[in-house]
Amino acid sequence: MEVVIVPDAGAAGDLVAEAMARLLRRKPDALLGVATGSTPLPVYRALAAKAAAGEVDVSRARICQLDEYVGLPAGHPESYRSVVLREVVEPLGLDETCFMGPDGSAEDIPAACERYERELAEAGGVDLQLLGIGTDGHIGFNEPCSSLASRTRIKTLTRQTRADNARFFGGDIDQVPRHVITQGIGTIMEARHLVLLATGEGKAEAVAQTVEGPLSAMVPASALQMHPNATVVVDEAAASGLKLAEYFRSTYESKPHWQTI
């Protein structure tokens, strides 16, 4: 696992956006897996700016979704489909047809999960999957004790995760759905490149457990230790719990290898 410590959230966004741009220059129809929440927003803004400046052609890029709430009506502004369309697809000037995700409003949720697994496989797999991390170490919505071999499935959210997401629902935890469809850890691990992005002191403990702790179902993100091409990008605050922080800083200063491949 490569760990890159950057000065702040803006620098993190620029770095990850450049990795995506390099991928698209090499493979114009690359499938980019995106995450929601506030942490990846600098990435999407930086990538849109590169596209607007003519630094990268995103016209053939494909976008896929990591997870989706169950039970929100179609078009709900906080459904993850709506969020990805609003924050990623539209700013990049892409057509909605480039975008795939699980159907959280389907009558048969297990069938919808299986269908999304097939769609990802038929698309050739994810080239770069951007991940956030929860304060409890979850990735996607794979909460602690999720199977490290899990596939796309329905999950029940912990109260902590619902509380973390209440800010998107007017601060009312009761408005946050209790269930989600999420790519499983096994599904996530099939992406060719995993990039975990974390900023802020609130993520410091989870980052330390992910990078320096043991492989454990209690910290689902620790599964990235087993991936052959995983990069963790953190700002100084999120890196504050790392014992090897000085070593990782030298990695950034010498330019991480994934910027040049």
UniProtKB/TrEMBL annotation:
Residue span, Glucosamine/galactosamine-6-phosphate isomerase domain: 11-229
Presence of keyword Hydrolase: yes
Catalytic activity: alpha-D-glucosamine 6-phosphate + H2O = beta-D-fructose 6-phosphate + NH4(+)
InterPro entries membership: Glc/Gal-6P_isomerase, Glucosamine6P_isomerase, Glucosamine6P_isomerase_CS, NagB/RpiA_transferase-like
Enzyme class per UniProt: hydrolase
Keyword vocabulary terms for this entry: Allosteric enzyme, Carbohydrate metabolism, Hydrolase
Site feature location: Part of the allosteric site: S146, R153, K155, T156
Residues forming the catalytic site: D67, D136, H138, E143
Keyword Hydrolase included in the entry's annotation: yes
Pathway in which the depicted protein is active: Amino-sugar metabolism; N-acetylneuraminate degradation; D-fructose 6-phosphate from N-acetylneuraminate: step 5/5
UniProt cross-references to Pfam families, sorted A to Z: Glucosamine_iso (PF01182)
EC code: 3.5.99.6
Protein activity control: Allosterically activated by N-acetylglucosamine 6-phosphate (GlcNAc6P).
Similarity annotation: Belongs to the glucosamine/galactosamine-6-phosphate isomerase family. NagB subfamily.
Entry function: Catalyzes the reversible isomerization-deamination of glucosamine 6-phosphate (GlcN6P) to form fructose 6-phosphate (Fru6P) and ammonium ion.
Protein name per Swiss-Prot or TrEMBL: Glucosamine-6-phosphate deaminase
Organism encoding this protein: Streptomyces glaucosporus
